Each structure stands twice: as structure tokens, then as C-alpha cells.
Amino acid sequence: MQIDLTGKRALVCGASKGLGRSSAKELAALGCNVTLLARSADALSELANELDRQRVHPDQDHDFLVADLDDTDALRKTIKTFAAGTTVHILINNTGGPPAGRILDAEPEDFLRALQRHLVASQI
To answer: Which residues of the chain have a pLDDT value below 70?
Structure first.
């Protein structure tokens, strides 16, 4: 199967590592213009420079937004400004979950925080 995402814009949350980082790389390789979102400007800048650029089409570009998904007021302001001038075709609503380790060692509050982060971020 061949997928061509040329001209599409993806917003990838939690893009600085793990699933978000991998998703951003794959979307860029498929021709998508990728906007990365996470807390670390340094990690996002590094990743934006690593993403495929202009291999698929000459106007392919990538950028990033620095935001903490736990700070809903700041996130709302960042997304509102971004969305005012950009159409997003693909949303990767990815955030950190409970701490790594055995599921039995995690506290219920860890899961509630992760679930709330996912729900609130996608609503914003």
C-alpha cells in the first residue's frame, strides 16, 4: 500500500520522544507537513531538522510548538494562535502515560492524570 500525504498538515503531540517522535518521522516520510508539539524546544528543534524535507515534494515543511499538555490555559492559547492560520488534517493526540514499569505498580491517579491529559488535549 502506498500512502501519499503530500500537502497535508499533521499536528503531533508528545513529539519529542517515543510514539510521537516515530509518528512524526513516518508522517514526514509520507510527504506530510508536520507540526511537532511538546515541552522541550531543544528536542523539537532537533527533531524538526531530522525530518524528511522536500524529498517527497519541494514545499514540504515542518515546524514546532512548545507547550505543556498539563497547562491547559497555555495550551489553549498556543493552539488557538496556531489554528487561526493553519488547517490540520491529521492529529496525533499523544501524551505520556503512567510511569514506565509494571502496571501493578502504578497508582490509579497515574492513569487518571494520563486519561485527563489525552481527553483535555484533544478537546482543546
So the answer is: 1, 54-56
Structure confidence at residue 54 (pLDDT): 64
What is the grid cell recorded at 7? 500537502
35 φ, ψ to 5°?
Answer: -105, 120
With vertex at residue 80, the alpha carbon angle to CA 56 and CA 21, rounded to the nearest 5 degrees, is: 40
pLDDT score recorded for residue 95: 85
Quickly list H helices, the chain: 18-29, 41-50, 72-84, 108-123
Residue 16 DSSP code: T
Give the pLDDT of residue 40: 94
Q: Side by side, which strands form the sheet with 33-38?
A: 62-66, 33-38, 9-13, 90-92
Q: pTM, whole model, 2 decimals?
A: 0.87
Q: Is 93 exposed, middle or buried (0-12, 13-18, 19+ CB in 10 A)?
A: middle
- Judge whether 51 and 26 are in contact, CB under 8 Å: no
